[in-house]
Write a structure and sequence with these properties.
This protein has 204 residues and is of the alpha+beta class. The protein has three domains: 2-45, no CATH class; 70-139, no CATH class; 144-202, no CATH class. Helices cover 50% and strands 14% of the residues. The chain has six helices and four strands; from the N terminus they run H-H-H-H-H-E-E-E-E-H. The chain has helices spanning 2-15, 24-45, 70-78, 83-105, 119-140, 191-202, and strands at 148-157, 164-174, 177-182, 185-186. Strands 1, 2, 3 and 4 form a four-stranded antiparallel β-sheet that branches. The termini are far apart.
Length: 204
């Protein structure tokens, strides 16, 4: 009994059941009620294997319905929205839509909990979208038979960190067209390195 009481008191410390103490008698009643609630939670948290108590909160279920398409991702990039701001805008729009549907049709068929609404997933979606868009542009572009190739080297800072690298911008122009081919990194800004990079890039 003494060990069981210690377990209950320890559990009360972790669960923080509110106790409104007005006098000695009420305090004893509240403590008894708190002990009963704690014992009940402890019994519910016991597993069938070793009787261990699981005090960890239940993991929230994430939504599984993905409703964000390429048009929405393109708008986010066009407006130059950060992933955090884009997530705020999307969440507010979805909440307003669900509230409107609820006021018109009653209980909506889709809830906020059913949708994928988190910044990590949105960041991955935007990264994949940009990669697919860049690949489609490269695959859909054919260099004309007659063209002019322009290039220029510049020392630019890396996206991550403060280190700077030599980069080479390559632009192709022709009749009624102009296209940025890429801005690859180069080992050095010497003529041989630039010529080798241009040759390798055009052969891709």
């Amino acid at each position: 009994m003494e060990e069981e009481r210690k377990r209950v008191e320890k559990h009360l410390v972790h669960t923080n059941y509110p106790l409104e103490v007005s006098d000695t008698e009420d305090a004893e009643k509240d403590i008894s009620a708190g002990e009963e609630n704690a014992a009940k939670d402890m019994n519910e948290g016991e597993d069938t294997d070793g009787g261990n108590i699981n005090l960890l909160p239940k993991k929230a279920n994430r939504g599984k319905i993905n409703f964000i398409d390429d048009r929405m991702l393109a708008c986010m990039d066009k407006w130059n929205l950060s992933t955090r701001d884009a997530m705020h805008l999307v969440s507010a729009t979805v909440a307003a839509f669900i509230n409107t549907m609820q006021s018109v049709n009653g209980t909506p068929s889709i809830k906020m909990e059913d949708l994928i609404l988190n910044r990590t997933t949105l960041h991955s979606m935007r990264r994949d979208f940009r990669r697919r868009q860049a690949q489609e542009i490269i695959n859909g572009f054919n260099i004309p038979d007659v063209f002019v190739l322009h290039w220029d080297g510049k020392l630019l800072a890396e996206i991550r960190g403060t280190e700077k690298k030599d980069r080479l911008s390559l632009v192709v122009t022709g009749e009624n067209m102009g296209k940025l081919l890429g801005i690859p990194k180069i080992e050095s800004s010497t003529g041989d390195a630039i010529a080798a990079e241009i040759h390798n890039f055009l052969c891709k």
